[in-house]
């Protein structure tokens, strides 16, 4: 039975209404950026990126940076994977890559000399711990030579860890190297599901990594789960949730598996008949909300749960939550400098993405050029809509007078079409609109992407190449 239910979360509450979700779910972006990456253009190149950095310098003042480093290698492929990665057992490839990555970091360090205080660092992949301990040590020492990292109690330094690649001494070593937050890929503890997605990862292994992270003094431990994988049912999900709750991470992300085999080759190895039905997926989602909120986690938004005392939940209560390519973040408005193949930077009013292949990456850096492949300059309209989408995603409400103060517009006139669309969602009970506020209701929180899509100007343009986004729920 999937009737409406309000989970007993600490604020903000979230209401699960299966009938409404069934009626309104559709394909849509996750809005880790706006405009979304599929709007980037090759007309934006290295020269544009240099101009964006010059703009940051001219802006004056000290704005701390966010740094992202992409390690694309994985030892084996998980069939659900939609990441940009290179699956190889030839470890020497990582050594060559590391050399070039360090060159890119040095070039970026020169560009930001004098304004290079980093308060947020994230290593993602692929599998960052594909690098050996010594290689990681070398990389972090290099980062410290090129950028000034804020002290441990201020900076947020996180790494994605595949529990299959590390042991307790390695976790302690990562802490000594400066990481203070750790994110573990789990997806599901069920052995059959793990086999079906080619990611066999015993529960004991994951528990040992969590225990080591606590022991080593990591400030936040996060676990990633996925619902909708082959062979998953509400029953297997319930068992996994019980184990996850017992492990007690600070944050839990629960992603909806998007089966898009026309875009992501590994997914072609997943038997479609083994996938859960849309209704079963809804049951799993409902269960996640009920169990996690019942265990005291706060629904932060868009697949994310956190303990009430975790920084994300605190930042949300204080109105400081932000969203970027790594998901939710507590560091609002930091320019994001991203290094590595396919990495996306957000500097000033621009986004720029690096080339996607190793050969192209190496050849740009051999010419002493940053490997920018494409990007976009944001217009005033883009910046305004990005602000609105960010506010709604992070805080579930928007102050109309604050937008009118920051931008030379009359909200009702500028967003006449959008307000008309929102009124239809208001009738469905997803939000309320007053002259001062747009407020998402507990019922609308799970459908926040639908609400944000109303403000996405680019979605008005029809695409000819089929669905590119996952379902909003
Ligand atoms: S899911 Fe992660 S570990 Fe698995 S193949 Fe993709 S990037 Fe690699």
Automatic annotation (TrEMBL):
This is Coproporphyrinogen-III oxidase. Its EC number is 1.3.98.3. Pfam families: HemN_C, Radical_SAM. Belongs to the anaerobic coproporphyrinogen-III oxidase family. It is an enzyme of class 1 (oxidoreductase). It comes from Noviherbaspirillum suwonense. It is found in: Cytoplasm. The lineage of its organism: Bacteria, Pseudomonadati, Pseudomonadota, Betaproteobacteria, Burkholderiales. Keywords: 4Fe-4S, Cytoplasm, Iron, Iron-sulfur, Metal-binding, Oxidoreductase, Porphyrin biosynthesis, S-adenosyl-L-methionine.
